[in-house]
Structure formats: structure tokens, C-alpha cells
Amino acid sequence: MNVERGVLTLSGERQPDLPAANAQVAVHINERFAGRFSRAVSLPDDLDPDQVAAKYSDGVLHVSIKRRASTQPRRVEVAG
């Protein structure tokens, strides 16, 4: 995973879920993609590239990126 110039790039490799070559099983149709892959996602300008966290669990990758503190809304008290 890489974050550079406002683009999050993910790459990896999916292993085929076919049985081993010496197994006594014949596969007629396999509709699952296997091999190398890469995805690029454009990010909004107000995200902080130094605050990226990723977690992989049960086949799901969860990526969270915090917003910059300067772009967070803040409350202003009005005297009156």
C-alpha cells in the first residue's frame, strides 16, 4: 500500500483456490480471478497521508485515513 500525491495505491496477489495438481479432482469452470492486481484510488485533499492505518481480517482489507486537523470543523463562541 502506498499513498503519494493524493492517490492511494493497493497491490497484491490472489492465490488460486484450485486443488493441488496431484489431487483426484477435475475443475471444469473456474470463475475466480487469480494473480497479481493493483488498484489506485484518488483521495480528497484534506486527508493526512501520514495518518494511514490498515487492517486485514477475514479476507477484508480496512483502510482508514484521518483528516488533517486544520480542516476539522471547530466551534466558536459568540459573545453577546
Structural overview:
This protein is mainly beta. The chain has a single domain, classed as Immunoglobulin-like, CATH 2.60.40. The protein is 0% helix and 48% strand. Strands 1-2-3 form a 3-stranded antiparallel β-sheet, with no helix packed on it. A two-stranded antiparallel ribbon has the order 4-5. A hairpin with a 2-residue loop joins β1 and β2. It starts with a strand and ends in a 13-residue tail after the last strand.
Secondary structure elements and pairings:
Blueprint: E1 2-4, E2 7-14, E3 35-42, E4 47-57, E5 60-67
Antiparallel strand pairs: 1-2, 2-3, 4-5
Average pLDDT for all residues: 83
* Low-confidence region ranges: none
Count of domains:
1
Percentage of β-strand residues: over 45%
* Class computed from helices, strands and strand pairing: mainly beta
Give the tally of β-strands: 5
Can you tell me the overall shape? elongated
Strand order of the largest sheet: 1-2-3
Helix share, percent: under 10%
Provide a count of the helices: 0
Distance between the termini: 51 Å
Radius of gyration from CA coordinates: 21 Å
Order of helices and strands: EEEEE
Give the CATH class. Answer: Mainly Beta
Largest sheet: 3 strands, antiparallel
CATH topology tier name = Immunoglobulin-like
